[in-house]
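Fill in residues.
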């Protein structure tokens, strides 16, 4: 079953924030964030370092909790509370934090397979069904990484490891992928290959929610951009309307030049 088969006209919003504020270490980091993202949308959240992107992700994944304020709410697929093990199959998370948790020898196959257990790697007490192994093989074929099945994660390039983290998130055919700064630590070729994979997933119906400060991460399939500045939604709208020299100069706080080629935007 792919993600499209679970979307209906009545499918609630993937994310619905209404006046969400978050404190960290005695400092308010997010200020009355209001936004709504549909289950099938391809959206980029763009902003400079320190604008609150990481806190926003942690609020989605329930590592941070909003302030309990009147008229404030946060729902994921229509619900305010989730068992995290029920949520993970619907919203796949791909972050650099997961890579940092690879502290022992884990093969590529084990990394993808561990998505069924919401773990990093497969533990001796996990019961691996034949159907799980079959799905793991299918996902690795989709991502063009079956040759990495028996290689240790610690022996892979960053690009190869990123693909396997995506595979880990895909084993449940999630409605959407949440990608945190996906091109960090990747060289030019690995970044291009990763974008090709993400485009294939977007075209197949998996929602893409991209959180980044790097303009070339924004795929041609992404048509909506949310600009985040100083913990607030600075702008929210069509990509072509918001990715302009004037808007980005104001967002990043310095003069920039903007170019577009083959559906990608570049900034310097």
């Amino acid at each position: 079953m792919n993600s499209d088969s679970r979307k209906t006209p009545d499918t609630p919003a993937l994310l619905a924030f209404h006046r969400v504020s978050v404190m960290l270490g005695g400092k308010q980091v997010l200020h009355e964030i209001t936004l709504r993202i549909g289950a099938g949308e391809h959206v980029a959240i763009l902003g400079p370092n320190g604008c609150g992107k990481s806190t926003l992700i942690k609020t989605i994944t329930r590592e941070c909790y909003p302030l309990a304020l009147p008229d404030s709410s946060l729902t994921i697929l229509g619900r305010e509370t989730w068992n995290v093990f029920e949520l993970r199959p619907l919203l796949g998370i791909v972050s650099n934090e997961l890579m940092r948790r690879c502290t022992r020898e884990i093969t590529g196959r084990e990394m993808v397979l561990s998505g069924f257990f919401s773990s990093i790697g497969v533990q001796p007490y996990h019961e691996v069904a034949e159907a799980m192994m079959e799905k793991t093989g299918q996902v690795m074929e989709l991502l063009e990484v079956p040759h990495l099945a028996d290689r240790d994660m610690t022996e892979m390039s960053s690009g190869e490891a990123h693909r396997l983290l995506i595979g880990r998130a895909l084993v449940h055919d999630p409605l959407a992928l949440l990608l945190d700064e996906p091109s960090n630590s990747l060289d030019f070729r690995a970044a291009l290959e990763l974008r090709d994979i993400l485009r294939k997933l977007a075209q197949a119906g998996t929602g893409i929610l991209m959180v980044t400060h790097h303009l070339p991460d924004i795929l041609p399939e992404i048509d909506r951009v949310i600009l985040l500045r100083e913990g607030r939604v600075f702008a929210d709208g069509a990509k072509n309307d918001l990715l302009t020299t004037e808007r980005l100069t104001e967002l990043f706080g310095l003069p920039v030049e903007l170019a577009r080629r083959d559906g990608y935007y570049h900034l310097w």
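The mean pLDDT is 91.
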